[in-house]
Amino acid sequence: MSGHKIKNNLRLGVSYITLVLLAIAAIYPALWIIMGSVRPGKSLYSKTLFPESITFSHYKELFHSQTVLFGQWYMNTLKVATFSTILGVLLILLTSYAVSRFRFRGRQTALSVVLVLGMFPGFMSMIAIFLLLKEINLLDTHTAIILVYASGAPLGGTLIAKGFFDTIPRSLDEAARIDGASNFAIFSRIILPLSRPILTYLALLQFVGPWADFIFARLVLRSKDKWTIAVGMWDMVNSNQNSNFTLFAAGAVLIAVPITILFMFLQRLLVDGLTSGASKG
Amino acid sequence: MDRHRNKATILSILCMGLGQLYNRQFIKGLILLIFEVFSVTYLINNLPRALWGIVTLGEHPRTLVKGKWMDGDHSIFIMVTSLITILFLLIFIGVYILNVKDARKIGRDRELGKQVNNFRQSVRYVLDYKFALAFLSIPATGILFFTVMPIIFMVMLSFTNYSAPNHIPPAKLVGWVGFDTFKSLLVLKTWSHTFYGVLTWTIIWAVLSTVTTYFGGMLVALLINQKGIRYKGLWRTILILPYAIPQIISLLVMRMMFNGQFGAINQYLGYFGLGGLPWLTDEYWAKVTLIVVNMWVGIPVSMLLIMGVLTTIPRDMYEAAEVDGATGFQKFKIVTLPMILFTTAPTLIMQFAGNINNFNMIYLLTGGDPVKGDYQYAGATDLLVTWLYKLTLNQNKYNMASAIGIIIFLIVASFSIYNYRRTKSFKEEDMIQ
């Protein structure tokens, strides 16, 4: 009996040590960048992880600098992310509701097409989209990237949302239909309230996209005051990587903190979203 | 007896909306008529030039007239505008066919003595019975112009000679070259050497990165899920952190940490009296770094996923195994592993496909470097997709990049279609749910 207990304790001990090591590995880069952001000076290099003195001057500099329009970029990104989320999620919901609840000719084909189109590498289509935007005079506007982000959304989200809608019993729709509800009413009164988890998941993914996209946004947004935050950060790293590391660190913290907190709060939903995409697709 | 039907059909063939007007559906008829007027004006103005453009891609290069450059045809603009016009023509033809069908159907209804729907009733009818198609048309338009059109454009590009230095508009014209681009990519020594090299690394990378993150995630999930481990939620929350941080931030931070000169990693190795390693500048070590950093980013996702699956495995399966005298490892082998694999197989395949196109990881961390001398514009860690990016944005070899894009697409699409078929069969079998 005691031999079994020792073995058990040993197993737990080893597990805890492994977990602690993993936790350190997970947290360390975040800690490193936070510490970097409050360290005086500009250098990437520091002797110790924790700085000897703490300064918030880099955060101030972000908002008062002539070359880094951090506040402006932040607001731009917020705007683009909000609008493209609303529009994109709406489009995803329309598409997936239609393919989940209605049987029409070409439905299976439409689903396969959505899936396959989502697999195309985006970079080549960037040139065509660029020329298209130029053609309709939308270059260097936020409308352009909102449109592009939103219209791309159904390709990524439809199958996941459809998988979720499929799990909502059809008897609910039918009952409502007998009571005389129109398709719109069924959608807004029954389907939407029941699909809050998937809605949150899709909205989160859609919202985070513009904060991270530095490729397409860089191509479309030419003037500095229109940039999104990712374009700005990318520019910052490329133009003066080692010379002003601490400023970059401060910017990185300001971007990462809200998004990380969002993800942390919604982690339960992430599991739901991931698995519903996986097993019910 | 069939007067109405034929008259309505002929009228609507003559001009959109006439058939509807004849059928006394005035609002619908007027809308169609206005649509026809606009479309025909647009097509008359643009279609001839579009057809000319798509065939020739422009005929007049920029010329020097009296010491001044006179702008000639810009082949790529011509190509895109032609493409848009032709897409519009297709939509127009589609609407036209629907219009004729509709007029004929209503005409037949009239012969049978049925009441013709007024406009409000028509709208009501569409919302009730054609809801899905009416709804889908909105996202479909977006997808058509922002996804399908660019893809057609890209496929077309790969059959042209649109590349630096000799065929870049507006100075020069671009022409059709058939399969030459594919031929040089696959057969011509200078290009094929790079192509096969990059392709090999892409596949190695996709396999290694998928396997390491998947089994790493499984190990961590099992570790946390062990009997007797306390604060499971807390561990999960801590370990999910790398997934929550936006990749553009975390990967750029990683790039700095692994920096050979100033980075934190080499600094700490120095404390233990070890020499620093060329993490990002040596070919072999750059690949190792990529796999390791990818594990850091990817394990949390797999962990979350597998922890979700673990909670769905019915307890009685384990109990049954215990009754049969299974040890801990046997229980894992017989119950846990098959259940996890079965449920997550589709995700696994999608992750593999995603890793083939894992642009962020490579571009943000190494940028494809270190440079390889005998490669065409590619580095040792470049994937097909980052090579494509470099060819497009840095080298302006658009035709080559398009050809590579098509090849990537074929690889990835075949995986995902195979996968999709499988998930459907899963669903129909109803083995787990």
Automatic annotation (TrEMBL), chain A:
Keyword DNA damage: no
TM region positions: 12-35, 80-99, 111-133, 145-165, 245-266
SUPFAM superfamilies named in the record: MetI-like (SSF161098)
UniProt-listed GO biological process terms: maltodextrin transmembrane transport
Chain ranges of the ABC transmembrane type-1 domain: 74-266
Record keywords: Cell membrane, Membrane, Sugar transport, Transmembrane, Transmembrane helix, Transport
Protein name, UniProt field: Sugar ABC transporter permease
Stretches assigned to coiled coil: none
GO molecular function: ABC-type maltose transporter activity
Family: Belongs to the binding-protein-dependent transport system permease family. MalFG subfamily.
Highest taxon listed in the record's lineage: Bacteria
Topology with respect to the bilayer: Multi-pass membrane protein
From TrEMBL, chain B:
Gene3D superfamilies the record matches: MetI-like
Cited SUPFAM superfamilies: MalF N-terminal region-like, MetI-like
Gene Ontology biological process: maltodextrin transmembrane transport
Keyword Membrane appears in the UniProt entry: yes
Membrane-crossing segments per the record: 26-44, 76-98, 131-157, 198-225, 237-258, 284-313, 334-354, 398-418
GO MF terms, alphabetically ordered: ABC-type maltose transporter activity
Keyword Metal-binding among UniProt keywords: no
Function in brief: Part of the ABC transporter complex MalEFGK involved in maltose/maltodextrin import. Probably responsible for the translocation of the substrate across the membrane.
PANTHER family for this protein: MALTOSE/MALTODEXTRIN TRANSPORT SYSTEM PERMEASE PROTEIN MALF (PTHR47314), MALTOSE_MALTODEXTRIN TRANSPORT SYSTEM PERMEASE PROTEIN MALF (PTHR47314:SF1)
Record protein name field: Maltose/maltodextrin transport system permease protein
Species name: Paenibacillus anaericanus
Lineage, broadest ranks: Bacteria, Bacillati, Bacillota, Bacilli, Bacillales
